[in-house]
Amino acid sequence: MAADAVTEATWLGGRWNRFWYASGSPLSLGIFRALFAVCLAFEVPNTRSRSLFAIEGGFHLPYLPFIKPVSPEMYLAIHQVQYPFIALLGLGILPRFSAGMLLGLQGYVFFSDQLNFRNHPYFFLLLLLFLTFSPAGASFSIPALIRRMRKSGHHGESMVGVIAPLTMQRLMQVQVSIVYFYAALHKMTPQFLGGHFLADQMAGSIFTGRVGAVLAALVSPASLESLRATVGRPGFWVVPACATVFLELSLSFALWIPRVRVAAMLFGVPFHLAIAYLMDINTFSAAMISSYLLFLDPDTVPQIWQRVRGRFVARSLTSGALSPAVLPRRAPARTGGSGKRRRP
Amino acid sequence: MMRPPRYFSLLIAGYLAFQVLYPIRGLVADKFDSWGTFTWNMYTQRYDCRSRYRLVDESGQEEGVDFLKYFNLRDEAGHVFFRQALPRFHQFLCDQLAREGKHGRLLADSECTRNRVETRSMIRSGVDICTAANFAVAPK
């Protein structure tokens, strides 16, 4: 331990090690991995249409000179070949290899030109980086399911009982908080808080996007015109703008505090759903909502799973659909990580 | 708790330092210097530019330059009109026009407005951007 950057010798060192090097159930991480793979699948066409600077020809502003633009065919291939790896990642088959391949493929396109920069792919790249080094396939994956079925002969036990390092999960949590924190800080400008940005951004999208079709069906043309004038005024957006900044800033901290975590999530989920619905920012919103799973105590998801499974088994036994012989013979291993005892 | 791998804490600390400190640059830097990449400035700025490039031959005849055709994605070309990126684009434009056999003085005007409130001229007008210092990109 003497060569470690942080030793247990100090109070801070001990806290640091307990935070970063904790172990626990990777079930939340596994579920997040599967959900994130769905987000990635929907993000590929979006990135493909908005990262055309990676294609040869025209002006380029590479981050590094050795990253060369690619031919149109190669550009298409780089995106198409991502789907099998996304599927593997989602199923938890070779998840580290798949995440690494996706990191390489998406990273090449991303870093081939500074004009390709968007915050959402950047966030996704960071998550892929963490998944590459994480034990995300240890739970909620096909290999884990097969392993447990071979071992215990009962598939339900594959979800719990596994313990893995939570370091990469912690990094993802911190990254999500950083995104919220700086997104809020950047919005603390008179233009944003005065509603100008939202008026610009939303006034158009409300009437042309998904809401537009609903409004057109429900509201008369005259009322629609009046509404258009109202939402075009910055004053209309002052409260939503201030609420956005307050919520983003709060979420960066509140997700870490057990007492307010669920409340924070209850505000965060509709916030991201609104962004997805009104601004058509779908995959990023979905990834942020999915990331909330990572903030749950490592024991929480396995406990919920056990409870749901218990009810299912009890109902199946009552109805006679399940034989008592298939029930596990021994109690699952303790998941640990949080320092709390598992409920019996 | 697992045993921390050697030097792994340093990697984590370095990563955190970058993620926490670098975005501050986006908060304090002049918004006309760069788009603010890697700073999580999501949906916080509007940047509109009106730019015009023209080639003036020896007889004084002007010919407009369709500079947007050199971008694979025209809608995102505005990301170039920042002080840090613009010299590189001007250098490319000078080389490219020479390759196309188009010679003369390359003049340009570009006015950019941030969040509809602050407008600045990004290029020194009336000077040949191919021979001017810093490719005629206006100083702060």
Strand content of chain A: under 5%
**Largest sheet strand order of chain A:** 1-2
Order of helices and strands of chain B: HEEHEE
Span between termini of chain B: 53 Å
Low-confidence stretches of chain B: none
The major beta sheet of chain A can be summarized as:
2 strands, antiparallel
The total count of helices of chain B amounts to 2
Radius of gyration of chain A: 23 Å
Q: How many DSSP E strands of chain B?
A: 4
Rg measurement of chain B, Å: 20 Å
Report the portion of residues of chain B in β strands: 15-25%
Major pleated sheet of chain B: 4 strands, antiparallel
Class derived from helix and strand content of chain B: alpha+beta
Description of the molecule:
The complex is a heterodimer of chains A (344) and B (140). Chain A has 344 residues and is an all-alpha fold. In chain A, 65% of the residues lie in helices and 1% in strands. Chain A has 16 helices and 2 strands. Residues 1-5 and 328-344 of chain A have low confidence and may be disordered. With 140 residues, chain B is of the alpha+beta class. Chain B is elongated. At the A-B interface, helix 1, helix 8 and helix 10 of A face helix 1 and helix 2 of B.
What brief labels describe this structure?
heterodimer, A: 344 residues, mainly alpha, two-stranded antiparallel sheet, 16 helices, globular, disordered N terminus, disordered C terminus, B: 140 residues, alpha+beta, four-stranded antiparallel beta sheet, 4 strands
SSE diagram, text form:
The complex is a heterodimer of chains A (344) and B (140).
Chain A lengths: L10 H10 L2 E2 L2 H24 L21 H9 L1 H10 L3 H17 L7 H14 L9 H11 L11 E2 L1 H20 L3 H4 L2 H13 L1 H9 L2 H11 L6 H17 L3 H22 L2 H14 L4 H20 L25
Antiparallel strand pairs in A: 1-2
Chain B lengths: L7 H21 L18 E10 L5 E4 L20 H14 L5 E10 L3 E4 L19
Antiparallel strand pairs in B: 1-2, 1-3, 3-4
Brief digest:
The complex is a heterodimer of chains A (344) and B (140). Chain A is mostly helical. Chain A contains 16 helices and two strands.
